[in-house]
Amino acid sequence: MDIFAENKCSRCPGTKCCTYMTEALGAAPRAKSDFQHLLWQISHKGVEIYKDEEGWYLMFQGNCEHLRPSGACNIYDERPQICRDYENDWCETDAPAEEGFELYFRNYQELLDYCKKRFKTWGQ
Fold it and tell me: Can you tell me the distance from the alpha carbon of 28 to that of 104, in angstroms, rounded to the nearest whole number?
């Protein structure tokens, strides 16, 4: 069967878009203090950071509490507007989001290693 936007969600393995959320950072981190703040954020369970062509984002790993074991939405008729507005013309059934990441930090150590390379005087 061909997959189109109209039937794509019902064919998604694991309902990927409902297992995390992202929040854009207001401005790109530039100073050491910006990266110190990011290190604090990524130290928390389920928090990751990435940069793509649109900017820097915090990504919070965690299933939506309304996600049924089947992958369907338990509050579909009353779901928030952001869920209603979601367009799946392109989504992770087409390609993993990570393919578009310019930078991707899954934990404190990965970001710290980046900071040490970016700022030659990091530990001083």
Answer: 14
